[in-house]
Amino acid sequence: MTAQLLLVGECMLELRAESADRLSHSAAGDTFNTAVYLKRLLPELPVRYVSALGDDQMSGIIRAHMGRHGVDDGLVCSLPGRTPGLYAIETDAAGERKFSYWRAQSAARGMLDEAHLARLYAALPDCRWLFLTGITLAILDDERRAALLALATRVRELGGWVIVDDNHRPALWKAEPARLWLDQALRICTHALLGFDDQAQLYGDADPQAMLARILRNKTSEVVIKAGSAGCLVGGHGIEPRAVAGRPVRAVDTTAAGDSFNAGYLAARLSGQPPPEAAAYGCGLAGIVVAHRGAIIPLESMPAPPAERVRREP
Q: Per the database record, which ranges form the Carbohydrate kinase PfkB domain (predicted)?
């Protein structure tokens, strides 16, 4: 049996203006970005993406991107007649982003139907780590949200890690359902990688310390509160809270800052590093990523991996 990491989400076609009359395209999305960086840092780890695409040319382009990055698409189902989501991105002088989305009819919203769930449950004996985000939950209907959390519950029952990043997007859902479903996800997860701004917007936390105390009232073993360039706060059951400084850089594009942090943190943890050191590694990777344009930086710009061998059991 080979331990695998599954990431559930939506991979979209990203459009970026290179000039007044020229657009470039690539595949991106929060969970996919994390998958790519995890595979780069831990090339021996089977990284599998869970989603749905259509049977059109654009879906084929996205699958080709997955293949080039070594991300397995065997659990990405094909829905005939559907198309993937699309977004365009602009960045200002400070590297902050403005998005325009065309995703209301995205094929990913149709994942986790009966046939797809059967394939996923069949894959669970090899799944040691399951990763999902608030965006994953936001794009699904209530039936599919419940199905995803039932799947996550089963992973935890089998002794695996369930990792949740809130990644709140107000444009995708209102605050009330966001709190309802994120509360459920946080009660199920073993590891929470949360953004302070996202959580404060939803719950009104005064500071990262208050947020950490609230999250730890759940059964979450390990919590990271991310605060952008200010670094993060790490804590958990049996883990003394510790602030980890961010990496001061001039941000060019913050598109995948949190996504790359997640990958760096998890890669370091799976390599045996304790949470504070893993958080420092994640901050370092995020600092490199935001100094480049685009969600996925050139391979030659990647830092050295946290270790040579993946720890196979959580």
A: 4-300
